[in-house]
Every structure is written in structure tokens, then in C-alpha cells.
Amino acid sequence: MGLWKNLKYVLSDECNGLLKLLVDNYNKKTDKNEKTVHDILIKVQQTLDTQEVIDNNLSDTYQELRENKEAAEKIYNQYSSITEQCEAIVSQMNQMETRSDSRTEEIEKIFEAAVEKQNEEFAKRSQVLSKRIREIFDLIEAQNVKDPDEPDIDELFARIDMLEKKNEEYENQLTALQNELTRTQEAYQTAEKSYQDEKRRTFDLSKKLVQSNDKISDLLSRMKDRALEDMIKKDDTETDSPFSISANKDKYTITAGNVQVMVMKFANTSVLDHFFERVPDQNTYKKMYDRYQKNIRATARQFSAGADLEEVLQAFLAVVQEELVNKILESVSGRMKTSKAEFEKKLLAVLNQYLESAGFYSRDEIRPGQMYKAENYKDMECVKTGSADGKQQGEIVEVEIYPYYINYIDKNGKRKRMHTKGIMAVAG
Fold first, then answer.
1. Which of 67, 305, 387, 414 is the most buried (most CB within 10 A)?
2. 270, exposed or middle or buried, with CB in 10 Å at 0-12, 13-18, 19+?
């Protein structure tokens, strides 16, 4: 409001100055002054117009200021009321805060008293519990004291583990024995059937044999030719070699129908087992025999009752050749060339008994001094020696091991035989 008032005064002063200037110029009465007067009049008129506009604007502004003042007073009154309310609220809050502090102190005192009481109870309980724990600990210590008469638990566990291992081994052995018993029973049934068949054949053959014996007796009574008599008489000349086996030369007991019986004969090493029972484990012959026994029984387990006869025989002869002939018998033969070989002689007798029970016989017509021809000795391994005194080149110097033969009848009914290889030295 003061701004517009000052502006009005300025405009009035300017207008008065212009009027004064107008009067002065008018009194002079010149052309130039007339023009100046005219311009001054125009300017005065403009000034007056401006002052009128300003007066109008001042009137409007004043009215607006009054309205704003009333609104401001109203707002101020509302603000004062709100301020009073806020002060009242703050006062209440201060009172509540004072009360809260008082109550907090009371609660803290009650809580401290409760905590102190609870701590006292905990302390009492802790003492009782500690006493009880000490009693239990003493009781456990008393129980843990080892009784001198009580057995060692670790030792008992060790024994249990050992017994469990032994039990497992026994179970495995029992399973193996049960399997072997099953195979034996099957072989026995097959052998029983073959035995009954052979029994019927034997009965038929016995009839024919009686008839043949009558014819032979009649024939012998009429024989006068010595050469014919030599042909039918058995040659009583026997070799004096301890390796000779002749009992099975004319026997054909192994047939395609009784393969399992033949397998059992090879696997039955009881005569050798009894011999080696009294021989120390570190003995070289016993070690070689243990290997032979293991391989021959492993071979026996490979074949069932329906296996091919010749295939089974070849498998068994391979083991006999490798483990029995080339190792044990060759070693025995070498030792028997020395002056002291009592153990080897006993061992050879037992070996001959085992080989004979399996169906073997030896080709023992081979003699030192005979001339070697390859076609006649395909069953012999020939070792060339240096020139011996009084020996011709190609002459047999020594028969170390005879070849062992075994007779059999194949599935077509043909009589055949298989053999191992013998060893002999020939003058080179």
C-alpha cells in the first residue's frame, strides 16, 4: 500500500512541475514555446491518465489486500487454535512420559526382584543338580572299574571275527562238497546204469566165453605145431623196469557211455594222498604233487556226464603229461640212477598203482640196443647223446620213461587208444 502511495505522490509532483513549466512557457508567448506548451499539455494529459489508472489500480489492490488480511487473520486464528491443541497434546505426552518413567522404574524394580529370586532358585537347583551329577559320575566310575575276572571285550570281538571267518570258510567248503557230492551222485547214477549194461553184456559174454573155452580146449588138445602154440601162448618174458605197467593192455573198460566213471578214476588220488600225508610240506615231490592234484581235479570239474569221451581223455592226458610225467616221473627217473633212491622207489610204486587204477599201461617192449626209427617211435621223445662206447649211431642207449597208453571204445564202437610221450636217449 505504501509503494502505491509514494508512486502517486511522485506522479503529482511531476504533474505540478509540468504545469509550472507550462505556465512559464505560456507567459513567454513564442512559437517555440507554443509547441513546447502543446507537448507539455499532451504529457500532462498522459500523466493525468496514468494517475487515474494508478488510482483505480490502487483501489482494487487495496480491496484485495483487505480480503487477504481477513483470510490471513482467519488462518492465523486457526493456526493459534492448532498451536494450542499441540501444546495441550505435548503437555499430555510429557505427563504420560513422566508416568511411563515412573512405571518403568517400578517395573525394573519388580523385574530385578523376580530375576534375583529366580537366580536364587536356579542356584539352589544348580547345587542339587551338581550334587546329583557327581553322584551319577561316581556311580559310572564305579561301574567302569574293570573286573579282573571279566573277559576282555576286544579279545571277544576278535575271536568272534575269527570264528565268523572260519564259519564262512566252512560254509564255502560245505558248498563245494555239496556240489561235488551232487556231481558224484550224478556220476554214480551214470556208473550204475553203465554197470547194469556191462553186467548184461558180461552175462552174454560169459555164455559165449564158455562156448569159446570148449572150442579152445578142443583146439589145444589137437595142436602140434610149436609156432601155432607160441602164437596163442602169452609171452612170459617181462621187462625188469620198475616203470613198467602191463595190467591194462587188453582191457577196454572206458567207453563213451561211462565218461563220468573214467573222470572219477582220474580224480581219485587217495593212494597218493595217503602216501604224501607223512611227507613234509617243503618236500619238492609233495609240492609237485599238490600242483598235479589241483590241476587234475580242476579238469575233472570241467566235464559233465554227457561230455565227449575223446575230448575228456585229451584234457586229462595233457595234465598227466605236463605235471606227472615231465616233472615227477622224470625227476624220479633221474634220482633212481644214483645209489640212494629209496624214497623215489616207494613213490614210483605208488604212482604206478595210481596210473594202473586210472587204466594206463606202458609200452615196455622198447629195449636199449634197438635201432631207432622215427616211424616206430612216434610215442617217444628222442634225446640225442654223444657217441657212446660200443654203440652205433641211432642205437637206443637208454629208456628213461616209457609212454603210457590207455584203451577206450569210442561212440561208434571202435577200439582206440591214447598215450603220453616217453623219453629215451639215442646215440648220435
1. 305
2. exposed
Q: Are strands 360-362 and 380-385 parallel, antiparallel or unpaired?
A: unpaired
Q: Which pLDDT tens digit goes with each residue over 213-256?
A: 656 655 655 554 443 334 333 344 445 678 889 888 988 989 98
pLDDT at 304: 81
pLDDT of residue 101 exceeding 70: no
CA separation, residue 370 to residues 77, 375, 391 (Å): 159, 14, 10
CB 322 within 8 A of CB 239: no
Q: What is the DSSP string of 90-135?
A: HHHHHHHHHHHHHHHHHHHHHHHHHHHHHHHHHHHHHHHHHHHHHH
pLDDT (tens digit, 9 = 90+) per residue, 148-201? 666 666 777 787 878 888 888 888 888 888 888 888 888 888 888 877 887 777
Query: Residue 33 has what pLDDT?
Result: 57
> Which residues have C-beta within 8 Å of that of residue 333, sequence separation ≥ 6?
243, 400, 401, 423
- On whether the CB atoms of residues 268 and 356 are closer than 8 A, the answer is no
Among candidates 237, 242, 238, which has minimal Cα distance to 400? Answer: 242
Residues 316, 251, 379, 385: is their CA dihedral positive or negative? positive
Count the residues in the chain. 428
Distance CA 265, CA 313 (A): 12
What local confidence, expressed as pLDDT, does residue 61 receive?
A: 67
b/e map of 160-177 (b: 16 or more CB within 10 Å)?
Answer: eeeeeeeeeeeeeeeeee
- Pull the grid cell for residue 201: 553184456
Cell of 37: 506548451
Burial class (CB in 10 A: 0-12, 13-18, 19+), 112: exposed
Residue 18 has a CB neighbour count (10 Å cut-off) of 19
The pLDDT-based confidence of 209 (bands split at 50, 70, 90) is low
